[in-house]
Specification:
- With 301 residues, the protein is α/β, with parallel strands linked by helices.
- The protein has two domains: 220 residues, TIM Barrel, CATH 3.20.20; 53 residues, no CATH class.
- Helices cover 35% and strands 17% of the residues.
- The chain contains nine helices and ten strands.
- Strands 1, 2, 3, 4, 5, 6, 7, 8, 9 and 10 form a ten-stranded mixed β-sheet that branches.
- α2 packs across α6 and α4 crosses α5.
- The longest helix has 27 residues.
- It is globular.
- The N terminus is likely disordered.
Length: 301
């Protein structure tokens, strides 16, 4: 059965196009995510782990939820870390896999350097602890969990402030690929490139506009404009930027952990009816996979 056949032609469809499993810095398995999506009325869920794309499924249906292969690539833009989501990517694409393997290697090198700095401070065992996790893409979030577990820090927030932030005791700068390289790899894999949660980056409106301009020039396809805790004025600013630069709009929960009360799969502000024509499910790549969007929405459920 093709992906196009999996959803009844006139069924109401609700999407969440950004979430994470325990293969990166999420806390849960794919089965858990699918069940949570089903419980919350989501019909299409994109698994977008950091610098890792799942090979166990391309586009498949689990527990009544269509799972979409995605990825979230960490990249550098003028010394600022950004994230670019790729939707409907082919996990067998060599160009994408080569980039992701490089990113994963850099992540491990960063963790190893942090392990050395922690050991010097009398906190050994980080790499052994990380080796016991299901994660393929290791991150500072995993280090924060380790610091809490060992009692070196009381909370994850304090771990970031004291140890892992730019001025932290064991801070190690990342070495990400360029935004252009991330977009190129996503397109090589047949995917849609989306600038993730643009309103969360520490830039003013002028720099945000410059970022969107460079994203578009590099071949980017869409802006994520609906995600948890986005301010109303920021969401409207992103919609305006998308219109001005002929970009699509995307939406997702950025879900990581059921224990975090601020987010859940399928729960984020809506893309308004007035802006729905710009939604990413009208992108030709989406239509080629699922057919034309009928009764589709991205809204809090």
């Amino acid at each position: 059965m093709s992906a196009r056949d999996k959803t009844p032609k006139h069924a109401a469809v609700k999407v969440d196009l950004h979430c994470h499993s325990h293969c990166s810095d999420g806390k849960h398995s794919i089965d858990f995510l699918a069940q949570q999506a089903s419980d919350n009325g989501v019909t299409h869920l994109a698994i977008t782990d950091h610098d890792y794309v799942h090979t166990a499924f391309a586009t498949s249906t689990t527990q009544g939820v269509t799972l979409i292969n995605g990825v979230e690539i960490s990249c550098d833009w003028h010394n600022l870390e950004l994230h670019v989501v790729g939707l409907l990517v082919d996990p067998a694409c060599d160009a994408l896999q080569n980039l992701l393997v490089s990113q994963q290697s850099k992540r491990r090198e960063r963790m190893t350097a942090m392990d050395g700095l922690l050991t010097e401070r009398g906190i050994p065992g980080l790499m052994q602890s990380l080796g016991e996790l299901p994660a393929v893409s290791l991150s500072r979030s995993h280090v924060a969990d380790f610091l809490v577990t060992t009692g070196a820090s009381k909370t994850r927030q304090k771990a970031f402030k004291q140890f892992l932030g730019k001025k932290g005791k064991v801070a190690v700068a990342p070495d990400w690929c360029s935004m252009h390289s991330a977009i190129e790899a996503i397109h090589a894999a047949g995917g849609i490139a989306i600038l993730a949660h643009p309103g969360r980056y520490p830039v003013n409106r002028r720099r945000l506009t410059l970022l969107v301009e460079e994203f578009k020039t590099s071949g980017g396809d869409a802006l994520e404009c609906a995600y948890p805790n986005i301010a109303v004025d920021m969401q409207q600013a992103l919609v305006t930027l998308a219109r001005d630069h002929q970009l699509y709009l995307s939406a997702g929960s950025d879900f990581h952990d059921a224990g975090a009360k601020w987010t859940d799969i399928g729960k984020f502000p809506s893309i308004s009816v007035n802006d729905e024509a710009l939604a990413v499910w009208h992108h030709p790549r989406w239509i080629s996979e699922f057919g034309h969007a009928v009764g589709m929405s991205a809204q809090a459920v």
